[in-house]
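Weekly sync, protein design subgroup
Attendees: M.S., D.O., the rotation student, P.L. (late)

Item 1: inverse folding check
M.S. brought a backbone from last month's batch and wanted to see whether the design step gives back something sensible before we order anything. D.O. pointed out we never logged the input encoding, so this time it goes straight into the notes. Structure tokens as presented (242 positions):
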């Protein structure tokens, strides 16, 4: 089968490597089946999408809604390169799954308003599929409602024009949407288990997601969460497009 491509933007090696390992595990892939490009480290290489079964965009510390003059040169480059890639992906209706940062990038690309209205603190939230979500083949193995890990400063106020809302939570209406037939974005993290989110809580303690002095309290809270279903999204994506 063709490999999948993971586009990563995490500058911290542990976070980047943990994310890659989690994507492999959740997707049931081995390393030759998931190529990785660390976009924060170097410009986007020339990509021949015909070599790949699908593209996955991981999360990261960039906020799409930040003012342009507050963005680093790296963030501005990454966003410009992702816009160019999404131009081709959307035009071709090419299989794409964006996790967390994917909502901001695909949402902005498609005309959604992304701001801090519906940010959610780090933790597990109940996510409920819409009728369209229950009918979507990538989500076929999920229950109607399941817990998922979140932790984001910004979110889509609503789905982009023409997109299909697939899942919502009580505190963030847009938890997952689909553009055209084959492009997906989740606000929650489909790849994360408890140990994965604990590691990220530690790594990003000074990135403004929470007051650093509350780190141990947040870790204690997430250790009590039961989050088992979201990886089925990655497994479903891989199964559909392999």
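Designed sequence read out in the meeting:
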């Amino acid at each position: 089968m063709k490999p999948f491509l993971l586009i990563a933007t995490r500058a911290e090696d542990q976070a980047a490597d943990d994310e890659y390992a989690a994507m492999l595990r959740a997707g049931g892939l081995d390393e030759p089946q998931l190529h990785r490009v660390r976009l924060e480290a170097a410009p986007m290489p020339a990509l021949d999408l015909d070599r790949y079964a699908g593209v996955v965009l991981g999360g990261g510390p960039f906020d799409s809604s930040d003012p342009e003059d507050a963005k680093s040169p790296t963030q501005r480059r990454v966003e410009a390169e992702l816009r160019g890639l999404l131009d081709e992906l959307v035009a071709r209706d090419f299989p794409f799954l964006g996790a967390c940062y994917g909502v901001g990038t695909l949402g902005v690309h498609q005309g959604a308003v992304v701001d801090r209205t519906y940010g959610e603190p780090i933790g597990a939230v109940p996510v409920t599929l819409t009728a369209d979500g229950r009918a979507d083949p990538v989500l076929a193995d999920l229950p109607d409602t399941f817990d998922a890990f979140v932790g984001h400063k910004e979110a889509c106020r609503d789905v982009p024009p023409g997109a299909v809302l697939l899942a919502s939570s009580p505190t963030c209406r847009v938890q997952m949407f689909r553009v055209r037939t084959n492009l997906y974005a989740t606000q929650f993290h489909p790849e994360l288990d408890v140990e994965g989110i604990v590691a990220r809580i530690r790594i990003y303690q000074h990135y403004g997601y929470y007051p650093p002095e509350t780190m141990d309290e947040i870790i204690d809270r997430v250790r009590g969460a039961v989050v088992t279903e979201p990886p089925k999204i990655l497994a479903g994506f891989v199964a559909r497009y392999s």
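Discussion: The helical segments are 13-27, 73-92, 101-109, 131-135, 194-203, 215-223, 231-241. The radius of gyration is 16 Å.
Action: P.L. to compare against the previous round before Friday.
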